[in-house]
Design a protein that fits this description.
Layout lengths: L2 E7 L3 E8 L10 E4 L6 H14 L6 E5 L3 E2 L2 E2 L14 H9 L3 E5 H12 L8 E7 L3 E7 L2 E3 L15 H5 L1 H6 L4 H19 L3 E5 L6 H4 L8 E4 L6 H17 L3
Helix pairs in contact: 1-2, 3-8
The protein binds beta-D-glucopyranose (BGC).
């Protein structure tokens, strides 16, 4: 299978595009639909189905979802409606669209794309991909192997605050923080991660990765930090790659 529709479910937008699995490129412009508010289970399923219809897609679909995902089932959804919890998203999207569908945590998806095609290519040791948007997501790799569903955005920082509440991009906007003020907050997140995990490399993903120049001067970590090479497309690409791998592992040899 060479082409998969990748979809990235976020707190403010649900985005997708067909992805070439061979090189991680998008085959068309991505399409974005606002995340319904409140993002109930029914509305999220309907919106994903609309996105699939937009591309008149009948092939496999990979979906990155902002919560803990195990075997196609949603276990947490901090920035969407609680009704999403307990949803077997793979089964519901299949029922709505007839497409075979594979669901993965959104930050894990972004991480997979960066390790394969982007800033983490050929990097060994512990690599941490941190995505900053409505929430803070994490993907942890050891020698290229993903430790799934790490939720380091929910870590309690050394100042007693929860990382995501303290330093997400949503918090920056809500509190109207300057890049300096926000950068100092995000610096604490990185410093605590550095102390606890001693990674070789941080890769910064999500919308904020495009703005690194505005707050880099306020970071004083020792570990190398680079922006995601695929920028905020990483979630779409990684969801597609994940689906391609799961799909082929289900086919008889
Ligand atoms: C969720 C994570 C997700 C992150 C980024 C957090 O609130 O718990 O699963 O990866 O937001 O979307």
């Amino acid at each position: 299978m060479t082409t998969v529709l990748g979809i990235d479910v976020g707190g403010s937008g649900i985005k997708g595009a067909p992805v070439s699995i061979a090189d991680g490129s998008l085959l068309t412009e991505r399409h974005r639909i606002d995340t319904p508010q409140p993002a109930t289970r029914e509305k999220v399923v309907q919106t994903i189905a609309r996105l699939i219809e937009h591309f008149s897609w009948t092939g496999p679909v990979g979906i990155g979802f902002p919560g803990v995902v195990r075997n196609g089932m949603i276990h947490t959804a901090a920035n969407l409606d609680d009704s999403c919890i307990g949803c077997h998203l793979e089964a519901e999207i299949h029922a709505a669209t007839n497409c075979s569908c594979f669901v993965v945590n959104d930050a894990d998806a972004a991480g997979v794309a960066e390790m394969r095609f982007g800033a983490g290519r050929d990097r060994g040791g512990v690599v941490m991909v941190i995505t900053v948007g409505t929430g803070i997501g994490s993907a942890v790799f050891t020698d290229g192997h993903l430790v799934t569903n790490t939720e380091l955005g929910h870590m309690v920082l050394s100042n007693g605050q929860q990382a995501e509440k303290y330093a997400s991009d949503a918090t920056r906007k809500k509190r109207d923080l300057s890049w300096r003020e926000w950068g100092e907050r995000f610096n604490l997140v990185l410093k605590d991660l550095e102390f606890l995990f001693s990674p070789e490399l941080f890769i910064l993903g999500g919308g904020t990765s495009k703005k690194l120049d505005r707050f880099r001067d306020h970071l004083d970590i020792e570990v190398e930090l680079v922006p995601a090479a695929l920028r905020n497309m990483a979630g779409i690409v990684g969801a597609a790659v994940f689906a391609a791998e799961r799909n082929s592992s289900l086919q008889p040899a």
